[in-house]
C-alpha cells in the first residue's frame, strides 16, 4: 500500500470525527486534556506499568517465544524516560517502530496499529505524558537470546508484516463508522490481541479478529459471525460490554480484557463507544472451526447438587465436581448456577467463558479470579489457586462444563498445570 497523505478534503471529516487537527487546538490545557483521553483510549498504562508500580514507568515483562521483553519508561524523565525526545522522534516511534536513535523497536509495542494515528493525536499523547511527573526508573534489559537480540533483524520482520500508513477514512461509509474504525484499528489496536499470528508473529490479516490465545487467555472471535463471533450481539450490548465488561446472557470480562475495560474503554464517551460498536458489527464474519452454536448459548440450570445439601462433609481433598461447586461457587452463583437477579454474580449458563470451545478462560478465572473496576464500582471474584489442587480444578471445571457449558470438553491436569505456571 502507498503511504496515505491526508488532503484538505479529508480534514473536515476528521474534524467531524473529533480527531485533533493542527491549528484547531488552541491551548496547551486543551491539548493535554485531549492527550489524556487518547492515552486512555490507547491503553498505554496497561503495558507500561508494573503491578503497584509508578504509572508509565515501564518494567512490565512480556514473555514471547523469542524471549522476555520489558516495557520501557515513557514518563518525561530525561535520563531514563522519554523526556529528551522530540515530537519527530515520538512520531517516528509510533508510526515507524523506531527508537530515539533509529533502532528498531520490537513489535510487542503495537506500532503496527499506532501507525494509523494522525500526527496531531500522537503529539497530543506526548503532550499528556510530558505533563505528568517524571519518574526516574532505569529500563530493564530485555532477555532475548541470539539472534532475537539483534534489532537489525526486525528490518526483515517489518518488510513482511508492516505497512506504515496513516488512517484513511472510507468515503463510502458515514462519519460514525469511520470514527469507530479509527478507535478499533488505531487507538484501541484491538486486532493485536484478537487476530491470530503467522509463523513470524505478524498478524494474519486474512483471519483478522477471528480470535487467538494471548498470555494463556483466549481473546475471543469478535467478528460479525453469529456463531463464532459477536454477530448475535446488539449494538447496545456491545456498548455495555465495552463500558462495564458485563452483559447478561453473553459474557463478563476477566484477565487482559478486564484490564482493557478498567484502563481504557470505560473512560470513552458514549459517542466513541457507539462508533466502535457500529464498526465491530461490520467486521467480516469468520468461523474458522465451523461452529454451529454461539459460546453464549450453552447450559441449563443444575439440580445435581440438591442431593448434597445438608449432607455432612469433612474431607478437604475431594475431587467430586458437584461437591466442589457447592462448597466454593454456589454461595454467589446459586446452587442452580443461575447467579443473582442484578447480575453482579453472573449466571454460569449462557456465559461465553463456560461455553467457549477452549477452556483457558474458565481455568484462569477459577485459578486467578476476576478483578475489574468500572465506573459503578469494582467487580471481584476470588481466585482458588491457593486452595484447590490441580486435580480439584480439573473436577470443578469439568463439572461446570457439563452442567453449564461445552459438554464436549474434558480438561486434563496438564492444562491446569500450564496455566498455573507449574
Automatic annotation (TrEMBL):
Subcellular location: Cell membrane
Keyword Repeat: yes
Claim: Iron is one of the keywords in the record: yes
Alphabetical list of Pfam families matching this protein: Cytochrom_C (PF00034), Cytochrome_CBB3 (PF13442)
Requisite cofactors: heme c
Gene Ontology MF: a single term: electron transfer activity
Sequence positions that bind heme c 3: 329, 332-333
Coiled-coil stretches noted in the UniProt entry, renumbered to this chain: none
Residues binding heme c 1: 44, 47-48
Signal peptide location: 1-27
Residues engaged in binding heme c 2: 190, 193-194
Keyword vocabulary terms for this entry: Cell membrane, Heme, Iron, Membrane, Metal-binding, Repeat, Signal
Cytochrome c domain boundaries: 30-133, 175-284, 316-404
A single GO cellular-component term on record: plasma membrane
Record note on cofactor: Binds 3 heme c groups covalently per subunit.
Protein name: Cytochrome c
Origin species: Yersinia mollaretii
